[in-house]
Amino acid sequence: GQLYERMGAPGEKPEPKLKLGTPEEYSADVAPKVLMAGGKELEMLVSSGLWQQMDFRRVHRSFLYRTKPDGSSDVHRVLVTAEDVLKTRSLPPLEKPKVVLLLAWLDKWDESVPGTYVAGRLSKKRLPLGKMSAASFFRYWDVAPETAQLLSAGLGEAPGAPTRPLRKRTALDLVRAMKRYRGSFKTFQYMTSPYVYPVKGSGSAFARGAAKVLAQHGGASLVGRPVDGLMYRPDGTACGVTSEGVSVEAGCVIAAPEHAPEAVETSYSVVRMYALLSHAPNKCKDARSCRLLIPAAQAGRKHDIHLVCSGGAHRVAPADRWLAVVSTRVEGDTAGLSALQVAKRELAAAIPLLRPTRKIFAEVSPVYAPRADAASSGVCVLGSCDETSTFDSLVADVEAAYETVTGEPLQPQ
Predict the structure, then answer these.
(1) Element (H, E) at 360
(2) φ/ψ of residue 135, rounded to 5
(3) pLDDT at residue 2, rounded to an integer
(4) Between the CA of residue 239 and those of 231, 242, 375, 400, 408, what are the distances in Å?
(5) Residue 159: pLDDT over 60
(6) Which of 28, 142, 155, 368 could cross-link with 257 by S-S, CB 3.0 to 4.6 Å?
(7) What is the pLDDT, as a whole number, of residue 1?
């Protein structure tokens, strides 16, 4: 129902013939983000007490999109284990032994143990990961450029960053990401991807969880209450919030960008497509839930395309329906175009994976970032949600906000 109200045509309501189910059976995130079950984001949730107040469930699969030599598209699981490598159709037979050797070395690598930097079976060499590029790292293992790009975009995906040329990425950054990705499978039992996602989506789950944590520490939360505006002292610094005519003073004000428009600037725009399906995304092997990355280079773009899909597994849709959200940065001109027209142009590579669809919505949203002088107003302004489908960019925002407020870096306990 909220999707129709927010993005549908004026007065548009669900059509019975589409058999979508009832609005109460849906819980859609505007910008869904899956959580990698390892690393800073998990540490932050556990140390804050939020993890204990939320019901996270496994994301069934993690996929990577590629364009085959004949120009057709393909989707395959991210290569994590030697078994994955030996079974995959995405690698030529001669490449598979090389990747298996790389993964065997990665199993033993420990950033704090110098001896584990040594690689090679016959000719031993200590790899200077901090000085060599990711491209040089893959050349050492003698893997083809296509294999290197596949491993970098999937297993070695940079947290919160678009896929980028290997020559501009350090080998240490790549290896850390690969190690983190593989290690996330070991955090909980029966993991079939490195990701988890909260029941009914992160939007409602985080609000409920934060309210419980605040209550446990003597605080209070007013979720869903409108904000009329911020209160300012004569010197121009923020000192509170006004809501429905009631003013509340505060020693610290942390605000979303829409509540402090004078303190933010537009960085770029994001387009999101919301597709209601009666099937899992095509070529995703009937995944009950999944996260899929379409690297920019595979789609002829400058920015990656991100897809998150789930249904009854996370109670974001009825048991026999799926809700897929696809997002990317807007790269072309949008003048005179509807949001759906922009989505069909920018997300063209993903659309075949969604057909047939029961219903499609689209939205183009500006992404705001705090101005350089925003801190002078005494308001800690957060950035907008970007186009990515993982929590990494949100972690960076939280760390920056914590340091702005306290003057100290955030150290999860």
Answers:
(1) strand 359-370
(2) -65, -45
(3) 63
(4) 6, 10, 13, 20, 21
(5) no
(6) 368
(7) 54
